[in-house]
Amino acid sequence: MHGMCTYNLNSLRSILQKQRKLPLNYGRYRVRFYNATIDNIRETASASDLPQAMSDVAKREVQHHSNLADEWWNVNGPLQALHSLNSIRVPFIRDGLVARGSIDAKAVSTTHVLENQQILEVGCGGGILTEHLARLDAKVTGIDLSDALINVAREHLKKQANARLLENITYKIEPIEIHVKDKCNFYDAVVISEVLEHIDDKVAFLTACVHSVKPGGSVFITTLNQTIPMWLGGVLVGEYVINAAPKGTHRWEQLISPLNVQRILDTMGCQTILVNGSIYEFWRNSWRWINSTSEIQTLFCI
Question: Tens of pLDDT along 138-192?
Fold first, then answer.
């Protein structure tokens, strides 16, 4: 069934209902997913399953992030941790694509390493990650539901006065469920960074994302883990004490564990290649991978 862009969302949603009964994972603060080898799409459905309007949760999330538009590119402002995150997430995506074997060996050590790679960033916001991937010569399409943030992204791009970036980046105000209708099996990779924890219907969202990727392509996800330590340290302390993120950015019920993400992806025939943990050291505005076998796991799932 590979190549079809239809799916049964009700069947997939039942996965999450079962997963909510799973015990909490106390070990990992944050997670990184490198998902590749999209071999088979097992579920089918009609286009009528796609959302026709934003839910109240989506509207709330869009408005919350739109309110930060003026500060989006302030590297010392409320989103400084997001800017700093590029130091590990850009190499993570780059190295994952290199490992896939589709990158010309001559380009690996150059600034053009991602040349000819079509990448979709879902929930791109004001373009913090988008621009960095495009600087490696990837052709990046950034989509977001916030017109305010897409406008910020476009204006910042213009100010760079960089013809190469202008050619490499396309921004659209569009949900993934609509975008995939014209871009089914199109992208070499889809990036979902710091977005999944703001999505209410994760099954529908991830399904649409997977369908936008070519056979053998990659999906990269960064998100907060649903653990007690993450909630206490990463959210309550992070947002209300040290201001590592704007207050009210995250909600417990919208967080998800890596195991549950993996299970959703399993139903779509995706093979999870790597799951990594990372932590934010706020005192020096720096991210690092967690160097512990109990904190970093490598998963191979068929």
Answer: 999 999 999 999 999 999 999 998 999 999 999 999 999 999 999 999 999 999 9
Q: Can you name the residues that pair with 221 across neighbouring β-strands?
A: 33, 192
Residue corresponding to tokens 């209300």: 240
Looking at the chain, which runs of residues are DSSP E strands?
30-38, 118-122, 139-144, 169-173, 187-193, 213-224, 270-276, 278-281, 286-289
Which pLDDT tens digit goes with each residue over 213-236?
999 899 999 888 766 666 666 666
* Mode of pairing for the β-strands spanning 30-38 and 213-224: antiparallel
- 55 is an annotated ligand-binding site residue: no
109 annotated as a binding-site residue: no
Question: For residues 27 and 228, which has the higher predicted lDDT (pLDDT)?
Answer: 228
Is 194 annotated to bind ligand? yes
What's the rounded mean pLDDT across residues 196-201? 88
List, in order, residues 6 or more apart from 81 with CB less than 8 Å away. Answer: 244, 245, 280, 282, 285, 287
Judge whether 217 is annotated as a binding position. no
Known binding residue 144? Answer is: yes
User: Locate tokens 């690996």: which residue?
Assistant: 108
Per the CB < 8 A criterion, the answer to whether 22 and 258 are in contact is: no
Q: What percent of the chain has pLDDT over 70?
A: 69
How is 200-249 classified by DSSP, letter by letter? S-HHHHHHHHHHTEEEEEEEEEEEE---HHIIIIIIIIHHHTS-SS-TT-
Spatial separation of the C-alpha atoms in residues 203 and 199, rounded to whole Å: 9
- Please give the model's pTM, rounded to 2 decimal places: 0.79
Q: Is 212 assigned to a binding site?
A: no
Give the whole-angstrom CA distance, residue 33 versus residue 17.
22
Q: Distance of alpha carbon 120 from its chain centroid, rounded?
A: 10
Residue 63's Cα: distance from chain center in Å?
19
Instruction: Tell me whether residue 292 is annotated as binding.
Output: no
Residues β-bridged to residue 224: 30
Between 21 and 261, whose confidence is greater? Answer: 261
